Amino acid sequence: MLNRLENVCLLEIINDGRCVKMHDLIRDMVIQILEENSQVKAGAQLEELPDAEEWTENLTTVSLMHNQIEEIPFCHSPRCLNLSILLLCHNYRLRFVADSFSKKLHGLNVLDLSHTNIEKLPNSVSDLVKLASLLLSNCKRLRHVPSLKNLGELKRLDLSSTQALKKMPQGMEFLSNLRCLRMNGCGNKKFPGGILPKISHLQVFVLEVELICVPVTVQGKEVGCLRKLGTLECHFEGHSDYVEFLKSREKNQALSTYKIFVGRFKEYDVRTYCSNKTVGLGNLSVNRDGDFQVRFPNDIQELIIEKCDDATSLCDVFSLKKCSIELEVISILNCNSIESLVLSSWFCSATLPSPSYNSIFSGLQRFNCSGCKSMKKLFPLVLLPSLVNLKEIRVKHCEKMEKIIGGTRSDEEGVMGEKSSNNEFKLPKLRILYLSDLPELKSICRAELICDSLKVIEVINCQKLKRIPICLPLLENGQPSPPPSLEKIKVHPKEWWKSMVEWEHPNAKDVLCPFVEFSQPQVRKQDEDK
């Protein structure tokens, strides 16, 4: 629908395609059409509510968003029985709303007070029995929400980013028509049991993470009873809750978006941007009997693993045959037993025919690895032809890392079943190569790499690395030239770059000189603490 409105210029694209807005002329026309029953004073720099005579009985819509209104005093009690939509959002100075204000707004369907500084929601809101949407997101001072027991028509409740709210609103179990619920734990470490089964028509359930180390968890079985769920963001305490959630759902109940975190996370901030279909595992013992492997969603896009110390590779965590094609992002953090993304021995023992290897990780775009003490090799060489969509490689603080792309030519020939004279591989979409604090790194890849989309190369404290195997485009005279996309090369230390490291072409360093920045390495937080 948005695309159709864009195509006929009723909406216009902004922010590099991430948002759309109504064209100013279209908006003015709509306001004029609705003028008889509407009052739209959005962004009018109002410091107080419009006068009482402007609140006529025929009003159906009032928009006072993006103003500077500071309070709604007791003297304001408009009699607007037909008012359906009231938008007061983004009045950042608004701190007080008198209880009398909404007493005569019995027909109100949408109340939006999000992005205000109110500390208390008026008790009279409890009597708005026709209310379908109550939007209070980013009300960071909000401490009190009255009972919601009488709001049986409520379909959308947004209490996200209300950190000051330390008590769950009473009567939530009576919201049987609720379709969308976004909130935090209201001071609880666990979402109260018994509520979700009574609001089982939920289509969107987002339970925010309040703290990284102490997240708000929810029972897997209760989330599993939400049969109509399409969007889920939550945190399970452990593996058993995650399995209970999956067991409680039917096979055809696919989620359109999900961000599911299982266990405890320390370094990875789960509040940062994730893909639409993300699963994170933190501080778990991965079962070698395949329990995890058969229970990952087949359409998973992002996998985060932190401090799962009994896994030697991703083969121990999930089934490569089922899930790896859709994966776009992999982050492996502080997993001390992991030796490689995929062990070469898996390819030798896999039952897949050789051509199927090319589909494994074919959708992978970003790979992050940090603090893995046993990691010696990132990718086996046989995997390289599959990484055609890889855009970022980030590896840091892996003290035993020797090779980024490892394996011998004979290994590759044995797995692929054929011999190739070609000693070049293409990573056509690779934009960022970041290698930091890898004291044992000796090789990026024994083959030559063609990376014509490179934007940023960073090599910090990798002083045993002697060769960068990236081939530069050649001019007609045979001399190298920088990739057209290249923006910068950050290196440390300076002496290593000037005297030790070599590129594929002997003149490459001279050609790349304008792009080189000599950088001081960042100190890890735990080193600062020491």
How many angstroms does the end-to-end distance come to? 55 Å
Shape: elongated
Which sheet architecture does the biggest sheet show?
19 strands, parallel
Averaged pLDDT: 85
**What amount of the residues lies in strands?**
15-25%
Number of strands: 31
Number of helical segments? Answer: 10
The Rg value, from CA coordinates, equals: 28 Å
Percent of residues in helices comes to 10-25%
- Coarse structural class: alpha/beta
Write the layout of secondary structure elements.
Layout: H1 2-7, E1 11-14, E2 19-22, H2 24-33, E3 38-40, E4 61-63, E5 71-72, E6 85-87, E7 96-97, E8 110-112, E9 133-135, E10 156-159, E11 180-183, E12 204-207, H3 220-224, E13 231-236, H4 239-248, E14 257-263, E15 277-282, E16 302-306, H5 320-323, E17 329-333, H6 344-349, E18 366-370, E19 377-380, E20 392-396, E21 403-406, H7 409-416, E22 424-426, E23 432-436, E24 443-445, E25 448-450, E26 456-460, E27 467-468, E28 470-471, E29 488-492, H8 494-499, E30 502-503, H9 508-512, E31 516-518, H10 525-529
Domain Disease resistance protein At4g27190-like leucine-rich repeats: 357-468
Organism: Populus trichocarpa (Western balsam poplar)
Keywords: Plant defense
Describe this structure in words.
It comes from Populus trichocarpa (Western balsam poplar). The protein is of the alpha/beta class and 530 residues long. It has a domain at 373-409 and 424-530. It is 12% helix and 22% strand. It contains 10 helices and 31 strands. The two termini are 55 Å apart.
